[in-house]
Specification:
The complex is a heterodimer of chains A (189) and B (164). With 189 residues, chain A is of the alpha+beta class. Chain A has two helices and six strands, in the order H-H-E-E-E-E-E-E. Chain B is built from eight helices and no strands. The chains are: A alpha+beta (189), B mainly alpha (164).
Chain lengths: 189, 164
């Protein structure tokens, strides 16, 4: 096998290992965040998790870190919400807050945030996140200045349980992990 | 004691689902879509559970997942053509956050390949299928598999500065 073939195999294995099938949720899709038109019918065939048929590899540290329970002092963590698009919607919090210095632990990765029902939830890997301060226009649409149904930008993991979404328009929203969550808080169609 | 059709399908689901889900993620790069594709494959199998041959069911499911992934990708491209939201080949953030930098470069290059070439590489280097099995899965000849693999590796070698 050539070096390129080895690299290919390693990259495929690394990507495949980011998937940890959670059979406890049953046979159900997570199309809430991909705009494909809602969930498929549920078919419960596998109530128990079972081992990966592939040789097990170490799971990425970030995935484990993202699943750690929120610490008690989470309320004191940074609220990183800025919306520079004037004027801000009256019904939602859009005022800038002074952000305390935070340690950036991950790269800023291109991210497509689902905004159709407002800016409220995100999913990174197998972990569900919720916005520290959800944004919508009062009728569960994204506020003015946000694209619908998606806003392209970047997501950066900050610390173990937080992630920050930023886009070219200057939006910045901080999300916190929902430990052990296996589904979104609400289904947006 | 023989298994009922439901028991057999439940066993098939327990055994095959993790591998199929990973296959779909590799083909699509999107966990949510991958779950839908795998789920659809099992739903179709469930509908035919009374008649399905369980000795070949795993292969049938694999074909269903590959075809489902292709359809999902086609739909994604169509949506992109009309709405111009995010490029259908844009790197998925959730997976990219979780893989090492050295793999990201390779995965980006693979994502830029034509669909069939990408399928051949995934089935060969991740699923570990033979050329004949890949040909069966994709419904093409062994020659097409060989050509696709060779072209894909040549393209990757060029892009990654590696030997094919």
């Amino acid at each position: 096998m050539t070096n390129l073939e080895h690299r290919l195999q390693s990259a495929f294995t690394a990507l495949a290992d980011t998937v940890q099938p959670d059979d406890t949720t049953g046979f159900v899709g997570t199309s809430w965040d991909n705009g494909t038109g809602g969930r498929r019918p549920r078919l419960n065939l596998a109530p128990h998790p079972h081992p990966d048929p592939r040789p097990s590899r170490q799971r990425p540290i970030l995935a484990a870190a993202a699943g750690v329970a929120l610490i008690a002092g989470a309320a004191a963590l940074t609220l990183g919400l800025r919306d520079p698009a004037p004027p801000p919607p009256a019904t939602e919090q859009t005022a800038a807050t002074t952000a305390a210095p935070t340690t950036v632990t991950g790269p800023a990765i291109p991210y497509r945030l689902y905004t159709h029902c407002g800016i409220d939830e995100a999913k990174i890997g197998d972990t569900y996140y919720e916005a520290l301060t959800p944004l919508h226009d009062g009728a569960h649409n994204p506020p003015p200045g946000w694209d619908n149904p998606y806003q392209d930008g970047t997501m950066t993991l900050v610390g173990d349980t937080q992630a920050v979404f930023r886009d070219a328009k200057g939006h910045e929203v901080t999300f916190r992990a929902r430990p052990r969550a296996t589904a979104p808080k609400q289904l947006c169609k | 004691m023989s298994l009922t059709a439901d028991d057999a399908l439940a066993e098939l689901y327990r055994r095959e689902r993790p591998g199929l889900l990973r296959l779909a993620v590799l083909l699509l790069g999107d966990r949510a879509q991958a779950e839908d594709v795998v789920q659809d494959a099992f739903l179709n199998t469930h509908r035919k559970r009374a008649t399905i041959d369980h000795t070949t069911a795993a292969g049938y499911l694999r074909v269903a997942v590959v075809n489902g992934a292709r359809t999902a990708q086609r739909r994604r491209r169509l949506t992109w053509r009309h709405h111009r939201t995010t490029s259908p080949d844009a790197p998925p953030a959730d997976t990219d956050l979780l893989v090492a930098e050295e793999h990201r470069e390779v995965l980006h290059a693979v994502r830029a390949l034509p669909t069939r070439q990408r399928e051949v590489l995934v089935l060969r280097y991740w699923s570990g299928l033979t050329e004949a099995e890949i040909a069966d899965t994709l419904g093409v000849s062994k020659g097409t598999v060989k050509t696709s693999a060779s072209r894909a590796l040549a393209t990757l070698a060029r892009r990654l500065g590696d030997q094919p």
